[in-house]
């Protein structure tokens, strides 16, 4: 919320409680700088959901003319930004402490089952609006695919699902760092313990804001980014590299990372495998984790993906597209990597103005 008020926008902050007791930070930009608060105008709600290891700040990390949160507010929308359990803004629970392993026994299954519905229900109550537009990036699209195909009453609230760098299956992921994590998964899990994974600390804030801003380290930091997400330095605002790196990573659970690792060789999106038939039986009423069937999703969806994306690989995206029933628009951008959808210099021209156009055409 500091970033929002820094740029002169109105900001509201809410703590919402999920059905299983997690307390999540939800942020709102109710109107823009150019359209001051006129309560007689009911603004349409757009909900933004961040990806893996990040937070709501993804949508407001750029200059206002290139940050989707601010762009939508200035275009006259009521903007809400969610935070998944376990990140910096959602590390609280009604009775579990973040020091306990029980707090961290979740993956994107629970984010889709509890976090997203709680956020959407809260926004409906708060605004009185029965429907909204949903924008997800990366894991934020995964949550949409699961929630909107398994919880019809939430799916009915979504006018259009805008999916940026959509992630459904991860069989063809090419990211060297992800592949290395898969190869050394036992070691990675042993070193991480059973709790949180890559939380925001003063050390990584220091690396991002101080170290990476030094010329000598600039290329090292960039190369790490590109090894994870894909190459494209020409489309990144280098003067803001320290901002991006000081705000990320924001943390998740080790179990969430383990869930993604379980799926690395599969063309299906499956629930978390608890490792034993009896444990799976408790969670799913069956001995193996069920697959999520995106063909059950009736929500209209518009998608954007990048051919240089090492995480949402074009081959995986093709598998997803073959399963979508109500695919109203799609665009592949040849030079886009995974984070260009947030930080790309030309992201307004390539993606954001198209989102606004599609919303306007579907009113």
UniProtKB/TrEMBL annotation:
Picking any one GO molecular function of the record gives: hydrolase activity, acting on ester bonds
Concerning Pfam families, the annotation shows: Abhydrolase_1
Query: Carries keyword Cytoplasm?
Result: no
The biological processes this protein is annotated with in GO are: lipid catabolic process
Gene that produces this protein: LIPJ
- Which intervals hold domain AB hydrolase-1? 45-344
Residues the record marks as active site: 138, 309, 338
Q: What is the species listed in this Swiss-Prot or TrEMBL entry?
A: Microcebus murinus
Family assignment from sequence similarity: Belongs to the AB hydrolase superfamily. Lipase family.
Q: What is this protein called?
A: Lipase family member J
- Domain of life (superkingdom): Eukaryota
Which keywords fit this entry according to its UniProt record?
A: Glycoprotein, Lipid degradation, Lipid metabolism, Signal
